[in-house]
């Protein structure tokens, strides 16, 4: 594992953003206008150039699925999946789609429609077993294309720990997938959840986080329901911000120094607000928390998928945490926000080492591939 600051942390603004700003100024328009021109293709919608997709290279750490056995188990509970997407469970077609779009591998996770808030503890435990077993089977059939994350029935910590231990070490199991919170409750920091965090650290699995859907989980409550619906656009990044901040100031990252955490949606608002969080925790208040490191150093304890929607925001994240802390995240096939992971990244003309880290190197390190 290489934690040394990559080239891009120092030079990215000099060679990329500064150059773009200079060109824009020569043309008489600010750089921001260049990025938001209605004639330009949105950053996330970039398509391959004349050379085509090329050899699949991207390892996607924000890729959803919904296997048939899980869908049936939900239907048996009276909760049929609404508007199922075929590629959520047709893995021959999904592999073809991946080849056509440059995806080497997907790390499979449930979407924001995770069932934990809608089911009893026992029902949740059964659903977790069904989907975890399905993930192992998919990996065994397509070992070079799919790995899976462990879904845990978080309503009951003992059942969650039991399920974690049951599937730990099984073929293709490479991560743990958890919701940021449940019904606005920060269960992650409950004392009863501590043995689960300790076990995850011991297993050396990264935790991939995602928000839970539903009004009960929205920080904005009904305010973001719509129309237009803004929960995914506003509540999700706020959830990630609370989660990351609490991981730091509760001392949880100090308690589990080897715990690996992947934040979706480029960390939400957290990278942008981290300085303000630090200021109001430790400069405006006597918080009473003693951290082992300066607050800012903890920003690199997280990994961030690159699912952000303005190129300026991606440049900011690169400058803040470095290329060795960014992974591919597309939200396929829930939102299909990014369809060509390499084409999205190639717009920035990164040094080859930085490009490789983001596309697959960091994921290979986290997933032990």
Describe this entry's structure for a reader.
The chain has 369 residues and is an alpha/beta fold. It has one domain: TIM Barrel (Alpha-Beta Barrel). Helix content is 42%, strand content 11%. It contains 13 helices and eight strands. It has helices at residues 7-26, 31-35, 68-76, 91-101, 121-141, 157-167, 194-203, 231-249, 252-255, 270-282, 311-321, 341-346, 352-367, and strands at residues 58-64, 103-109, 146-151, 173-179, 207-210, 261-263, 302-305, 326-327. The chain has an eight-stranded parallel beta sheet, with helices on both faces. Helix 10 (270-282) links the parallel strand 6 and strand 7. Helix 1 packs antiparallel against helix 11 (311-321), helix 5 (121-141) packs parallel to helix 6 (157-167) and helix 8 packs across helix 10. Residues 1-38 have low confidence and may be disordered.
Overview in brief:
By secondary structure, this protein is α/β, with parallel strands linked by helices. The protein has helices at 7-26, 31-35, 68-76, 91-101, 121-141, 157-167, 194-203, 231-249, 252-255, 270-282, 311-321, 341-346, 352-367; strands at 58-64, 103-109, 146-151, 173-179, 207-210, 261-263, 302-305, 326-327.
Task: Give the secondary structure arrangement, pairings included.
Blueprint: H1 7-26, H2 31-35, E1 58-64, H3 68-76, H4 91-101, E2 103-109, H5 121-141, E3 146-151, H6 157-167, E4 173-179, H7 194-203, E5 207-210, H8 231-249, H9 252-255, E6 261-263, H10 270-282, E7 302-305, H11 311-321, E8 326-327, H12 341-346, H13 352-367
């Amino acid at each position: 594992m290489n934690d040394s600051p990559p080239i891009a942390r120092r030079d990215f603004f000099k060679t990329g953003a500064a150059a773009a700003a200079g060109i824009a100024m020569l043309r008489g328009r600010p750089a921001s206008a260049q990025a938001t021109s209605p004639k330009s293709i949105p950053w996330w919608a970039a398509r391959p150039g004349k050379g085509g997709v090329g050899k699949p290279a991207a390892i996607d750490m924000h890729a959803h699925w919904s296997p048939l056995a899980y869908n049936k188990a939900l239907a048996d509970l009276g909760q049929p999946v609404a508007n199922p997407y075929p590629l959520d469970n047709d893995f021959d077609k999904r592999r073809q789609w991946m080849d056509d779009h440059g995806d080497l591998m997907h790390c499979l996770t449930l979407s924001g429609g995770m069932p934990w808030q809608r089911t009893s503890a026992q029902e949740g435990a059964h659903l977790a077993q069904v989907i975890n077993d399905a993930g192992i089977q998919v990996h065994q059939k397509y070992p070079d294309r799919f790995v899976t994350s462990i879904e845990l029935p978080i309503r009951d910590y003992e059942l969650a720990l039991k399920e974690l231990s049951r599937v730990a070490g099984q073929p293709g199991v490479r991560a743990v997938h958890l919701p940021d919170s449940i019904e606005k409750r920060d269960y992650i920091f409950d004392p009863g959840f501590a043995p689960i965090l300790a076990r995850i650290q011991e297993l050396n699995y990264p935790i991939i986080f995602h928000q839970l859907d539903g009004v009960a989980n929205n920080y904005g409550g009904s305010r973001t329901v719509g129309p237009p619906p803004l929960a995914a656009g506003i509540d999700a990044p706020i959830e990630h911000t609370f989660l990351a901040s609490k991981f730091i100031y509760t001392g949880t990252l100090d308690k589990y120094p080897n715990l690996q955490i992947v934040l979706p949606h480029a960390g939400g608002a957290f990278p942008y607000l981290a300085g303000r969080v630090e200021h109001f925790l430790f400069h405006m208040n006597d918080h009473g928390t003693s951290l082992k490191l300066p607050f800012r150093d903890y920003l690199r304890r997280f990994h961030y998928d690159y699912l952000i929607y303005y190129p300026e925001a991606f440049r900011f994240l690169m400058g803040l945490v470095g290329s060795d802390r960014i992974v591919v995240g597309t939200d396929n096939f829930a939102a299909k926000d990014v369809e060509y992971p390499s084409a999205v990244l190639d717009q920035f003309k990164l040094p080859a080492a930085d490009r490789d880290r983001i596309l697959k190197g960091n994921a290979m390190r986290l997933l032990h591939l």
